[in-house]
Amino acid sequence: MSKHSKGIHLFRRRRQDDLLERSFVDCTGCGRSVYVFAEQCRSCGDSVQVRAS
Ligand SMILES: [Zn+2]
């Protein structure tokens, strides 16, 4: 059984991580990170407002 992980390839995907981080906004209600395409915060149910930048 090989223990070499395929997960090392994940380290080469920093750009994708950046994109993912950009896909989250801080909830105006509770301050948690909410996916921008979600209509509501999963924590407090507040509507997500996408801030234009
Ligand atoms: Zn919230």
Identify the notable features of this structure and list them briefly:
single chain; 53 residues; two-stranded antiparallel sheet; 1 helix; binds zinc ion
How would you summarize what this structure contains?
This protein has 53 residues and is an alpha+beta fold.
Can you offer a commentary on this structure?
This protein has 53 residues and is an alpha+beta fold. The protein has one helix spanning 14-22, and strands spanning 24-26, 33-35. The chain has one domain. It has a two-stranded antiparallel ribbon with strand order 1-2. The longest helix has 9 residues, at 14-22. The mean pLDDT is 77. Bound molecules: zinc ion. Zinc ion (ZN) binds at residues 27, 29-30, 32, 41, 43-44, 46. Residues 27, 29-30, 32, 41, 43-44, 46 line the site of zinc ion. This is DUF35 domain-containing protein. It comes from Kutzneria chonburiensis.
Total helical segments? 1
The 3D shape can be described as elongated
Helix content: 10-25%
**H-E string:** HEE
Spatial separation of the terminal alpha carbons:
49 Å
What is the strand tally? 2
Largest sheet geometry: 2 strands, antiparallel
Give the uncertain stretches in residue-range form. none
Rg from C-alpha positions?
16 Å
The domain count comes to 1
Beta-strand content bin: 5-15%
Q: Record the strand order, biggest sheet.
A: 1-2
Bound molecules: zinc ion
Class by alpha and beta content: alpha+beta
Mean pLDDT: 77
Topology overview:
Layout: H1 14-22, E1 24-26, E2 33-35
Antiparallel strand pairs: 1-2
The site of zinc ion (ZN) has 8 residues, from loops.
